[in-house]
Amino acid sequence: MTVASRIDEVFDLDALLEADELAWRKRARAFTRERILPVIDDDWEHAYFRAEVVPALGEAGFLGMMIEGYGCAGAGPVSYGLVAHELEAGDSGWRTLVSVQGSLVMGAIARYGSDDQKEDLLPGMAAGEILGCFALTEPQGGSDPGSMLTIARRDGDEWVLEGRKRWIGLASVADVALVWARVVGEDESAEPVEAGGRAVRGFLVPTETEGFEATPIAGKLSMRASVQCDVVLDHVRVPDAAMLPDAIGMAAPFTCLNDARYGIVWGAMGAARACLDAAIERSVSREVFGGPIGAKQLTQAKLADMLVEFEKGMLLALHLGRLKARGALTPAQVSVGKLNAVREALGIVHTARTILGGDGITAAYPVMRHAANLESVRTYEGTDEMHQLVLGRALTGLSAF
Predict the structure, then answer these.
(1) Domains defined along the chain, listed by start
(2) Rounded to an integer, what distance in angstroms lies between the CA atom of residue 204 and that of residue 217?
(3) How far is CA 301 from the centre of its chain?
(4) Interval 187-209: pLDDT, tens
(5) Res 181: pLDDT
(6) Which pLDDT tens digit goes with each residue over 170-193?
(7) Are 143 and 150 in contact (CB under 8 A)?
(8) 381 is catalytic
(9) In whole angstroms, what is the distance from residue 86 CA to residue 160 CA?
(10) What global pTM score does this model have?
(11) For residue 118, how many C-alpha atoms fall within 13 Å in the half-sphere facing its CB?
């Protein structure tokens, strides 16, 4: 009996899934086994982003897979969640790429873009031929994107973008950046162009545009097989047609972020499952004090506790997926999922490390790599504290932001 079948025997998630959902999971599991796992430890060690995998993700249908048309799969939320789960069981960096490309950039274009923007970009992005990045976060802002300093000023039939962004995934390898900026008048102190305030708008900026500079952030001890960047926008000029016509205000990027957070709920549990698998396998193969450590009461208690949290996390992810399919998923519910999934995944990973002993800190097992990656996942797209405040506001009606 394999490790996976032991987990499935106790926790029969398959009974709750539809045939097409199981098919997507099978495809993603095979992709991870064949394209990610054989090279991920070396890529992570050498901080190497394996760009040649991106078209294969497109060929598999994983990019923008919940979008209808334009070469996208039009799959359901649970199918997407299962793909995110399997990819992150390989490495968080690859689930992050699918999330940035599909949920953030393609999702924004599909929801807020013009017909020309959709036709020009979505088919190529779905195929993995065009790579995008989502330039929202700023150095001084962090969890407060409402304090955005990047500006867009109209100059004739063009827009001029000025500002800085930080922790922008894929920016140095992307073909197009979706840049979020506040619209101002003729100068920064002028009255805003948009009625009702300095409206935030999204602009599709080819990364080869003069004045756009993306620099990979060095010295990362997490997410080492993926790329995150500092971005400088120095008098970047784009035509009026670069603006997403239907994205006005912070609600637009926040809607995209909620789609990405939904994928994290499933993905973090994938990292947890990979570590639980490793702990179970090691518990039956490693012998000390006259027998396998899996026969010891303390080890079995740890495994049981990890499985319980994994099961609860997966059931919550499935519940959120069914809500999303009905169009009933709320931002507060997404915050429940993101907060719980990453927090409990880290708990599972840390407990798995204790079962693996000294070998658990080596690349022979994926545990330390997942632990380091999950520290990034815990921070991006809403820290624990921010999601706690979202839930506090939902419960009390009072904002503590």
Answers:
(1) 3-131 (1.10.540.10), 133-249 (2.40.110.10), 252-396 (1.20.140.10)
(2) 22
(3) 32
(4) 443 334 443 346 899 999 999 99
(5) 96
(6) 999 999 999 999 999 744 433 344
(7) no
(8) yes
(9) 41
(10) 0.93
(11) 18
